[in-house]
Amino acid sequence: MECAIITTYRCNARCHMCNAWQNPSKVSEEFDPEILRKIPGGMQRLNITGGEPMLRSDIHRIVEILDTKTNRLEISTNGWFTDRITDIARDFPKITVRASVEGLPALNDKLRGLEDGFDHAMRTILRLKQMGVKDIGFAMTVSGENCRDLLDFYTLVAAMDVEFANAVVHNSFYFFKQDNSLEEHGDVEGKMMEFIVALLRSPRESKKMRVKDWFRAYLNLGLLHHVQGKPRPIACNAATDTFFLDPWGRVLACNGSSEPWVMGDLNEQTFDEIWKSERAEEVRGMVRECKQHCWMTGTAVPAMRRELWKPIIWVLRNRLRLLRGEDVCFD
Fold first, then answer.
1. pLDDT confidence of 183, banded at 50, 70, 90?
2. CB–CB of 95/29 below 8 Å?
3. Strand order in the sheet with 242-245
4. What are the pLDDT digits (tens) for 102-116?
5. Which residues pair with 45 in a beta bridge?
6. Which end of the chain is more exposed for a tag (fewer CB within 10 A), N or C?
7. pTM of the full structure
């Protein structure tokens, strides 16, 4: 099972595709880190996100508790607070960090509303690399405004030998947005197809990183299908394989629904009470009937792991097509 902890909706960025900064949670209402001890151990992956999680004054305590729950603890950040992040990495050197950017420097700073935001994110990743932290990299949310930077930025991260996670703009309660649209941006589909081919031709020197890029190509196939209005390549299993915790301590099915699908409250219940409740079963029924067709990392990656044969077959088939000089199949 995987889980994402939405630590706060406070954010120092002003991103064009997310209005969390206009709807900040109150410090006085945000969950006490002690409730995180109720989360079961042995999680496949656990993501600390926001808003901007480094705005939590108790972020170090949050990391300390969650580090006992998983072998892969990830922080999603805009990278602005370099010293706070490196302080955490010094105490938890196995931490995973993804710094979110929206393209190369000028465009990133414009779309994120952060002057010198790219410089801060880059400095954070370079400092972590210097410290010897292994699992570091960038994340990018593709939109009509930044799709032309996608391939160039991939060239940069491949040359730096760091990871590159990506998504496309979505609408949901989590982003406080319902008007994100790609319909008027014809470049997005073509640029994503080029990117998928580039991932399948990965230039990375490390065999492990090349293979990861091949499977990231499949992840981006799902994103392409979302852009095209097609169904998910693999059915969603939110509230079964995954869950989210919001800043108030409520357990949610996912972050892709139009409104929060609350399963229970860790402030008042144990995790087992929530997970085995009638309300949880009701929410799972809502997931089965969901028509959002979202494809975001929090639910897409567990789906790929659950039906691993699908991405394996797609990758092998398209790697073979490229070796034969044929076009990639985007179905």
1. low
2. no
3. 163-168, 136-142, 96-101, 73-77, 45-49, 2-6, 242-245, 250-252, 262-265
4. 999 999 999 999 999
5. 2
6. C
7. 0.94
